[in-house]
Amino acid sequence: MPERGFTLLEIMLVIFLIGLASAGVVQTFATDSESPAKKAAQDFLTRFAQFKDRAVIEGKTLGVLIDAPGYQFMQRRQGQWLPVSSTRLSAQVTVPKQVQMLLQPGSDIWQKEYALELQRRRLTLHDIELELQKEAKKKTPQIRFSPFEPATPFTLRFYSAAQNACWAVKLAHDGALSLNQCDERMP
Question: What is the pTM of this model?
Fold first, then answer.
């Protein structure tokens, strides 16, 4: 009487073929449909949340320097801002070329106070340009976070003109972080 059933080799071959076919199907489903702006915003949100936690744990004032190619995490040491070292946060993060970032203070109160201060000082356009050049040379972070002070709210917008997409990372007064799609498009 002939034996019924499959050999181990036949079963392994069928399992291999099923795995190969399913890998091909999964790759067709895993198309990259997310906009680069959303990916960049999610990456910033994740890194900033870790960064904020680190500031609280270590009791240090930390900051984020935002420049044209991307952003970098910094910390205040010996009276000056230096890049964060010895962590995954230490690298300069470069956003994709098709993504542009726009940082806005998140509080209208802050903007009004700043405008009043400018009016009091009566700065000329030349004076403002000189101040901006000094700040750029200092490499002072625009976003600062200290565990001993209330959070300074901000909105960092990530625009992708090619896909007409905008995503915003917001830090509220209470320190809550959020990621939302922007209502308006790139200015």
Answer: 0.66
